[in-house]
Amino acid sequence: MLVMGGVCSGQEITTTNYYNGDSYTGTRDVNQRRSGWGTFIWANGDRYDGEWNRDMPHGQGTLVWADGSRYEGHWEKGQRKGKGTYISSKGYSITGDWKKGSCTGKGYLSFGTGDTYEGDFVNGLFHGKGVRFFPDGRVYTGQFRDGHIAGKGSMQYPDGSSYEGEWDYDHYEGRGSFTDTNGMTTEGLYTNGKLYKTISRKQAKK
User: Fold this and answer.
1) Backbone φ, ψ for residue 93 (5° rounding)
2) Which band of pLDDT confidence, cut at 50, 70 and 90, is reported for residue 93?
């Protein structure tokens, strides 16, 4: 391990090059733990710039992975926690609340293709209530579970038709009402996205 030093704004700045290829440049506490502000570069190309406490990212900071993905936001004891934004090298991004390294709470996800989701997250998955806009023009408002449309909700289709009712794993499942482009509403029981029992049919007044 090679250590070099300097002084900046009253704080000692040291650079430590580790034998495994990692390096750290920044401030340390009286026990020589990474603390304050610094940059840690891993041998694989990952890089963290931000606040530290007791050798862990803690406070505001940015982690950039070797593939170009990045997280900018708050950290606590080495984990993403609080408000932050993750931008993937694959083109999608998540902005919201983070806990234990994943989006948990309120968030907004953009797939970068016109497909977006805004609402509740648990462990990085859609879970709770939210609104999803699909690139083909569909809009779903309602409940989600484990990353899928599940529970009660409504889907508006670009041709003007709609479905409102129960869902499971992205399909109509249970009781619901489908309104076609002519204003005919069919209430019934659905399974795997298909009507298998009609309860009532009603034509909208023109």
Assistant:
1) -145, 150
2) very high
Q: Tell me if 83 sits within 8 A of 98, measured CB to CB.
A: yes
Q: Strand, helix or coil at 70?
A: strand
- Which string of b and e fits 22-61 if b means at least 16 CB within 10 Å? ebbbbbbeeeeebbbbbbbbeeeeebbbbbbbebebbebb
- β-strands 93-99, 194-203: how paired? unpaired
Look up the pTM and report it: 0.87
Q: What is the tens place of the pLDDT at every residue in 45-85?
A: 999 999 999 999 999 999 999 999 999 999 999 999 999 99
| Cβ atoms of residues 58 and 76 within 8 Å | yes
For the segment 183-204, the average pLDDT, to the nearest whole number, is: 94
